TrEMBL record:
PANTHER family: DIPEPTIDE TRANSPORT SYSTEM PERMEASE PROTEIN DPPB-RELATED. Keywords: Cell membrane, Membrane, Transmembrane, Transmembrane helix, Transport. It is a multi-pass membrane protein. Signal peptide: none annotated. It is found in: Cell membrane. It comes from the Bacteria. The chain crosses the membrane at residues 12-30, 95-119, 131-154, 174-197, 239-262, 282-307. GO terms for cellular component: plasma membrane. InterPro entries: BPD_transp_1_N, MetI-like, MetI-like_sf. CDD domains: TM_PBP2 (cd06261). One of its GO terms (molecular function) is dipeptide transmembrane transporter activity. Its main location: membrane. This is Peptide/nickel transport system permease protein.
Length: 315
């Protein structure tokens, strides 16, 4: 197990370095000059040249990437061109919205997806199974930003039960902050719950025909107890894989939902940085999102080895 974790850590570091190079080069190839964006179109050529030297834009791209990566490992992502403040501070402020939103959405997706998938697999062909299949197919077909717009129309504009957008901040109280994140979390969670429902149902149905479950039923266990005690542990590996991808998506894919609900999160920061061509901020956000995806996938692989001893390499 220790050897597996060391290999995972080494692979994580190599992949993260490769991703950082890709992110830096891709954003560096975008058209336009960051110095011209900062100073405006009426800036004098000598002033532009001086700013390019100050920003390091006169250096080869590989040397600039090495300098950027070295500073990033120390938590220094540079200074935002648009906001005029350190990017690390900006990201910390925005993560205070995006991370709780992603965790709320993941909790809702797990609760709804696992419960509906289990009920569907418990009695295939029954009404609960048919409802779960419709939910899974419909949920995967509907984009989360459209769900967000529908929630705003019904619960904010029509019924007035929930705020239609904005974030009051954690200083306004936990209840007020969580209330403002509820509808965005639901909009993010429903498509992911549909995917999880389908995967859970399929994994449990696959294990339901195994000999050990037939033996458990023959010993007098009910279908529910047999699935919970013997089927669920064997169905965990594919479910964990999906959950890992979902958390990474919820963090990285909240751009549209945060803009629909006017939430000052990481997604809105990425959108504003792209609109203003703030390359420093865009590179930092892209690296952070890529690192979160790689890290979550590495953790999921480790969890799968822990829950499934068959995947452990012989020592």
């Amino acid at each position: 197990m220790a050897g597996f974790l060391l290999r995972q850590l080494a692979g994580f570091l190599v992949l993260l370095i490769a991703v950082s190079l890709l992110v830096f080069v891709v954003f560096d190839l975008l058209p336009g000059d960051p110095a011209a964006v900062m100073l405006g179109t009426s800036a004098r050529p000598d002033t532009l040249a001086a700013l390019r030297v100050e920003l390091g834009l006169d250096q080869p791209v590989f040397l600039r990437w090495l300098a950027w990566l070295g500073a990033a490992t120390m938590g220094d992502f540079g200074r935002s061109i648009t906001y005029g403040m350190p990017v690390s501070g900006l990201i910390a402020q925005r993560m205070a919205v995006t991370l709780p939103l992603a965790l709320m959405a993941l909790a809702l997706a797990l609760a709804l997806g696992l419960a509906s998938g289990f009920l569907a697999a418990r009695r295939p062909g029954a009404w609960a199974d048919r409802v779960a299949v419709v939910f899974a197919q419909g949920g995967m077909a509907v984009p989360n930003f459209w769900i967000g717009l529908l929630l705003i129309l019904v619960f904010a504009n029509t019924l007035g039960w929930m705020p239609g957008g904005g974030f009051p901040g954690w200083d306004a109280g936990i209840a007020s902050a969580l209330t403002s994140l509820t509808m965005p979390a639901v909009a993010l969670a429903l498509p992911q719950a549909a995917v999880l429902c389908r995967v859970t149902r399929g994994a449990l149905l696959e294990t339901a025909s195994e000999d050990f479950l037939r033996t458990a039923r023959a010993k007098g266990l009910s279908e529910t107890s047999a699935l919970l005690r013997h089927g669920a542990p064997n169905a965990l590996p594919p479910i964990l894989t999906v959950v890992g991808f979902q958390f990474a998506f919820l963090v990285a894919g909240a751009v549209l939902v945060e803009n629909v609900f006017a939430l000052p999160g990481l997604g809105q920061l990425a959108y504003q940085a792209l609109a203003q061509r703030d390359l420093v901020t865009m590179q930092a956000v892209a690296l952070l999102l890529a690192a979160s995806v790689v890290l979550v996938n590495a953790l999921v692989d480790a969890l799968q080895v822990w829950v499934d001893p068959r995947r452990r390499a012989p020592t």
